[in-house]
Amino acid sequence: MTRRALLLINRHARQGQNSQAIAQLQKLDLELILENIEDVRFLPEIIQSYKDKVDLVIVGGGDGTLNAAVDGLVSTQLPLGILPLGTANDLARTLGIPNSLSEACKIIASGNVQHIDLGWVNGKHFFNVASLGLSVQITQKLTKKAKRRWGVFAYAITAIKAMWQVRPFHAEIRLNGQTIQLKTIQIAIGNGRYYGGGMTIVHDAKINDQRLDVYSLEIQHWWQMLALLPALRRGRHTASLGVRTFHAQEIEVYTRKPRPINTDGEITTYTPAHFRVIPRALAVLVP
Description:
alpha+beta, Rossmann fold, 2 domains
């Protein structure tokens, strides 16, 4: 039976000018309603307007586009198909969806659904990770021009530049009945497995394990990051000097002044922040 799909393509994504996927999806017995997106802020409203008109939503873009769409997907409970057209595509990587558009189209057409958890902070849902500190500086410095030129390597190049300027800040976190005072350069709260162009939040993280994986980077000098980077990349930093890690279903973070919070690569809220995991919140088409 032919399924009706709302296809949302971010034309500003790194590979957004791509008609190959449209033709292939149509060949795979999907009836498409195409909306080209110029401003991703309107994605939840667009998805909501098609709630009773389509069987699924296909989002073509990167993690930022998916982050913009997630609240609309939650409110409608429409299944999500992913076309990885962005730079990092960390959610696709977590779900085992390859960057090959032809393979991604076949996965959507197969109809195999997995229910995944979502993170939530101050009313905003997220897929991969939310963080404050160093990662926010990276987000602020990471330009579209750099992503188009360098691809996923733009994250590493920008991170090296940001490390020179990062300064530790004081924070209080509350989780699992504890209150902990920190002096840190970054607090990261992960729901999925990958973030930041293939970094691993922790080696055994899954997007359906009904927990948040939390780490705090408590180093004093930028050069200490160089020794940590290989372990952070693989998610093997839990025993590293200068890294504190936790698991929780809820976490509160307080800072002396409001600090911006990055969710899936976009700055969306500020401290004080209340985080929680929402189990089996969304149906996604996966291999």
